[in-house]
Amino acid sequence: MGDRVPRTVGGRAGADSGPAAGARPPVITSDEPGSFARGVLADRHPALVQQVRAAFPYGRREHEALDALLDEITDGAVRPLAPEDHDHADWAAWGRTCFGRSWFEVPFLWAESYFYRRLLGAVGYFGSLGEGPWRGVDPFAPFKRAELRGDAVEEELRALDALADAPAAERATALLHASLWGNRADLGFRVSAPERAAAEDVVSALVADDSASLWRLLPVGGPSTVAVVADNAGRELIPDLVLIDHLLAHRHARRVVLHVKPYPYYVSDAMTADVVDCLRRLTEAPGEAGRIGGRLWRAMGTGDLEVRTHPFFCAPLPYEEMPDDLRGEFAGATLTVLKGDLNYRRLVGDRPWDATTPFAARTAYFPGAVAALRTLKSDVVVGLERTALDTLEHSGAAWRTSGTHALIQVRA
Ligand SMILES: O=P(O)(O)OC[C@H]1O[C@](O)(CO)[C@@H](O)[C@@H]1O
């Protein structure tokens, strides 16, 4: 990993120092029985190891490494990367306070992020000493591919025809909501919680909706550059791309920069290869979807749409600790849109905040206007009205983690 990702702050992954640390609740860990975080580490991660193992004809070396990882994440202590690993120094700094401890005791966000790094290592994604037959083979590609070819995507693409002639404002709202709810289609979320995936049938609700502020920041014909920090590929990235096309075609933005992950992460997170797959899926579709795909393909060629990546997107750190080059990048955007649950946790901090803490206060450090589009799939949330919060808390539903609720929050 590059030197552009801060290393000196690594200790903070396990501690509570840093700017304005005073009033912060402690970072979430996974040691509380029955907690959401514990379920992810105790159930979801082991299930994912087995799914990846079953999806490829890996050799003995990869199977042994997966066995060792499974033992470590269920019963063992967190082990560091091997000294010869390309990113050993980064993780040595970020994990300084975590190695040797139980996976359940260290910060949840750190443990998840490091789990994905270790899983990639076990299946040889980074090769050994720059070599290796499984180098660069995305272990999650079969799941992403199946989703992209599935009936749900087919139907969603067909539905674009009906929207093509809708008034611009109606279309804008529909596409913003499609991008928002696309975040519920997250393959990691489905690994051990099919009952949650079935929550698609449940009537969904917005717990905060600052969409009017979002559109105010992007007046038609303005010189705006919009940064979109993508989350999942497939069923989320397709509506993200359709929204981006709308921003460009209706002149809400002159330019869009789409930020993706540099390597496979949290199962279905989008990388450049996934953007290409989605664009192909769009261009090969009939009707409006195909036209949108064609426009986006051309926008890539002219630079109106640019795809970028940065090692920080796979770092176990909050955005508050982003490196200067990324800070500069976001500072230059009219608006940065962060998609998804993990980006939200990294944006506001992975801590059990009082849910009425103002979103603007938690994101004041962010360089420029920022919007979060997220379905709620973990405990962290801020920016709620007291009455809305009380109603949710009294509902008895798992509204924070089940993906049935969503939010659009904006800090101008
Ligand atoms: O794809 P998203 O929306 O970032 O969601 C990923 C989420 O999945 C989990 O890994 C498990 O639910 C969360 O910890 C994380 O926030």
UniProtKB/TrEMBL annotation:
Molecular function terms in GO for this entry? metal ion binding; methyltransferase activity; phosphatase activity
UniProt source species: Streptomyces corynorhini
- Which family is annotated? Belongs to the damage-control phosphatase family. Sugar phosphate phosphatase III subfamily.
Annotated region (Disordered) at 1-29
Q: Show the catalytic activity.
A: beta-D-fructose 1-phosphate + H2O = D-fructose + phosphate; beta-D-fructose 6-phosphate = dihydroxyacetone + D-glyceraldehyde 3-phosphate
Does this entry carry the keyword Transcription regulation?
A: no
Q: Where is the Damage-control phosphatase ARMT1-like metal-binding domain?
A: 41-385
Biological process (GO) annotations held by this record are: DNA damage response; methylation
State the needed cofactors, names only.
Answer: Mn(2+)
Q: Tell me if Protein transport is a UniProt keyword of this record.
A: no
Q: Name one Pfam family in it.
A: ARMT1-like_dom
What Gene3D superfamilies is this protein classified in?
A: 1.20.930.60, Uncharacterised protein PF01937, DUF89, domain 3
In terms of InterPro entries, this protein maps to: ARMT-1-like_metal-bd_sf, ARMT1, ARMT1-like_metal-bd
Spell out the protein name for this chain. Answer: Protein-glutamate O-methyltransferase family protein
